[in-house]
């Protein structure tokens, strides 16, 4: 389907009273739905924030304006990490964010975003759509009055920015690194000190020496934050987020109020946005990586085999401990890991040999 182009205007800043007025049930007007989407991203944040707006626009276009969604950036209507509760309680209709933010609600939510050495972006889609992941997600999220769909991904992320080189496991001892969630727990067990910082706080903390290293996303988003102006040591391939999925979480009552046709349409649009976001991140990251290296003198580095082996063994310990928390988590863990094993077996004979052979002759396809 073709997208329509809509002109938008900037709204005035929301005051407390205005925000309270916005937190109400879905609006109906002449057969049209007016819904509110709250996000965990800054306004117009490249990729993640703009994809939330694209999802809303695509739903409006596909329904010929019957369903119109107003998107609120983090802290415009509710705090960034308050979107789950707002949608669960019916104060907003949809959230756009990564479900590992909700591990405090239930630890199994991490599987529907990213876990250390887990599924990449395409494998995540494989699990959700063909490995029973969506059904398990429905069961987990349904307990919080939510229906969630994957709608965005950054693809594989980077290992982070470090003020000093990481040459051995000893270099992690006492390292203050901004890294959230399960990845932080892994590094903690290797001697690092994980620190939680919101995205907008990272640059200042790194530049002032309050932290020694930080992961964020990848070249596109990282360059926009200016990390290349602080340090040149940029490590590739984030073990902790190999392909994080971003969720569109609908209030379950709102979701059930849609017709079956609209549910199918919205699900298809979310899936389309997931694929397009991966393509966009691959394109933007490739462009930005070249700029970082050629213009800013950034040095791309990889962790040694010794370090990667320690990371994956420690990650396995963390994941197995997590899986034994309760029956729901164990069931989701087993399903997720079944897909991981199947995906690894296939990629070993398909993607990996091809990618290795493709690098044998790098002059192939030179520009004419």
TrEMBL record:
SUPFAM superfamilies xrefs: Periplasmic binding protein-like II
Residues crossing the lipid bilayer are none
According to its UniProt entry, one GO biological process term is: transmembrane transport
Indicate whether Metal-binding appears among the record's keywords. yes
Query: Where substrate is bound, by residue?
Result: 157, 178, 215, 241
Alphabetical UniProt keywords: Metal-binding, Signal
Positions bound to Na(+):
216
GO MF annotation list: metal ion binding
Q: Mention any one GO cellular component term assigned to this protein in its UniProt record.
A: tripartite ATP-independent periplasmic transporter complex
Q: What is this protein called?
A: ABC transporter substrate-binding protein
* Organism of origin: Paremcibacter congregatus
């Amino acid at each position: 389907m073709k997208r329509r182009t809509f002109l938008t205007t900037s709204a005035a800043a929301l005051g407390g009273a205005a925000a309270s007025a916005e937190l109400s049930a879905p609006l109906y007007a002449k057969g049209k739905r007016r819904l509110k989407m709250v996000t965990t991203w800054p306004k117009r944040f490249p990729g993640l924030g703009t994809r939330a707006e694209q999802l809303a626009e695509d739903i409006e276009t596909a329904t010929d304006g019957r369903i119109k969604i107003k998107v609120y950036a983090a802290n415009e209507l509710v705090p960034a990490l308050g979107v789950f509760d707002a949608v669960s309680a019916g104060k907003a209709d949809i959230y756009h964010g990564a479900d590992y933010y909700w591990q405090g609600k239930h630890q199994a939510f991490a599987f529907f975003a990213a876990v250390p050495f887990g599924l990449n972006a395409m494998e995540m889609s494989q699990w959700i759509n063909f490995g029973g992941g969506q059904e398990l997600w429905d069961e987990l999220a349904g307990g919080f009055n939510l229906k969630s769909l994957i709608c965005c991904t950054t693809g594989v992320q980077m290992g982070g920015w470090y003020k000093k080189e990481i040459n051995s496991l000893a270099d992690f001892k006492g390292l203050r690194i901004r890294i959230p969630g399960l990845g932080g727990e892994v590094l903690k067990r290797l001697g690092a000190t994980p620190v939680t910082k919101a995205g907008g706080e990272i640059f200042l903390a790194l530049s002032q020496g309050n932290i020694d290293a930080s992961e964020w996303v990848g070249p596109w988003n990282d360059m926009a934050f200016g990390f290349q102006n602080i340090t040149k040591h940029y490590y590739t391939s984030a073990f902790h987020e190999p392909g994080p999925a971003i969720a569109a979480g609908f209030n379950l009552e709102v979701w059930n109020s849609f017709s079956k046709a609209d549910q199918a349409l919205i699900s298809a649009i979310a899936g389309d946005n997931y694929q397009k976001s991966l393509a966009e991140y691959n394109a933007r990251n490739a462009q930005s990586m070249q700029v970082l290296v050629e213009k800013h003198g950034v040095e791309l580095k990889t962790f040694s085999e010794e370090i990667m082996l320690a990371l994956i063994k420690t990650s396995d310990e963390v994941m197995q401990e997590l899986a034994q928390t309760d029956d729901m988590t164990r069931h989701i863990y087993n399903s997720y890991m079944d897909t991981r094993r199947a995906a690894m077996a296939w990629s070993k004979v398909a993607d990996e040999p091809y990618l290795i052979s493709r690098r044998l002759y790098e002059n192939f396809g030179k520009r004419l």
